[in-house]
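Trying the structure run again after the queue cleared.
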Amino acid sequence: MKLRILCTLLLLTFAGAIQAQDQTDEALLQADSLFLSKKYTESFDIYQHLLEKERLTSPAMLLKMGFIKEGLGDYTNALYYINLYYLQTADRKALDKMEELAKARDLQGYGYGDFDFFKTVFFKFFDTIVIVLLALALMLVAVMVYRKKKYNRKPVVAGVFAIITLALLFYTLNFGRDYHKAIITQSNTYIMDGPSAGAEVVAIVGKGHRLPVKGQKDIWTQTEWNGQTVFIKEDKLKKISFL
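Done. Tokens:
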């Protein structure tokens, strides 16, 4: 009886997942159709819902969202979506486009170095890296069990490598998606020299600048401006993360 109930629950869950996926696919097809019909704002609303509520994304969708925002003159969000697209594809053209938009508006933070390239490659192959680490951890555990049973002694070397691999896997799954960058989304944003409204104002800047995220103190995000450690209210920023 219990087995029958369990099977029924599993079937219902599976059916619900299929139905939800069908609805998502239908919404994406509708958005693509609206985009092709040049009904950009309507298509963007659907894309945004899929991205923020359903956590569904694809390089093509992000590129279209960036295109729509650029066409509407919203270069801040255009840069945001192009940046997300770049994290998924490592497409050099996306870097050139961000640099073009940033230079035209004298925006800071869109430089690109070797470490940025490494992070992008890491994001591009994120799923593969997770699978490899998981497979390696399972293999090492299997070696430990085998050696313990066959030789009746502690597999120290395999144990050490297993712990290191599991630690890397834990870090990758929990912190590996952090990009540690954010875009200022509001005009006349105050940059302060401390995490307080009473701190000294370092600068008042417009939106669109991309800054490194160094930490968080209550409602204040620690970042850097012209080589100086500064703080900005978190509601003035839109953090960029690998989806």
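Strands lie at 178-184, 189-192, 201-205, 210-212, 215-217, 220-225, 228-233, 237-241. Worth checking whether this holds up in the mutant runs.
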